[in-house]
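Re-run with default settings, no changes from the original entry. Doing this only to confirm the output is reproducible before filing.
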Amino acid sequence: MSVSLKMKAPPTDEELRELSDRNPGYQFERSAAGELIVTPTGSKAGRRELLLGVQLARWAEADGRGLAFGPSAGFRLPDGSVLSPDASWVRRDRWDSLEAGAQEGFAPLCPDAVFECASRSDELPGLRAKLQVYLANGARLAVLVDPYRRAVEIFEPGRTPRVVEQARSVAFPSVLSGFVLDLEPIFA
């Protein structure tokens, strides 16, 4: 379960990095309204994030059209929020257009594809709302993986979300052509 804290002033990028460095096991994000969002990560949820991210990273390396990022990568979205999806993918040309300094900090862009993996303490409406924030900021694909329902919810701009239940794998041809997410290790 994430906690939103109203601050006197929105935390800066540097303050978010410092909080993350000093508090391992917690994810710190900033909403567009300037609230500090704190999310603890449990061991099983962390393992699922890793299993998802490894699959995306292997595919991205072999495919070459983009780069994959893990859950500690923060992105400064156009609305001013700083969010860290559990796994994400950015087209190589968009990444390469950033200056080196921008790549080192919270990259000033919204990933093309984002994945969130639900944990026992997550509230699904909150995760769905977060995925809508990504779409509103330019993501072309937002995916919610729910191991408890053995379901995947797929969000794309201008389309009704699609739910895939009880599947062994799922593909995302409109944005990640050639990538097939093996759900069995994540759902195990």
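The chain has six helices and 13 strands. The longest strand covers residues 176-182.
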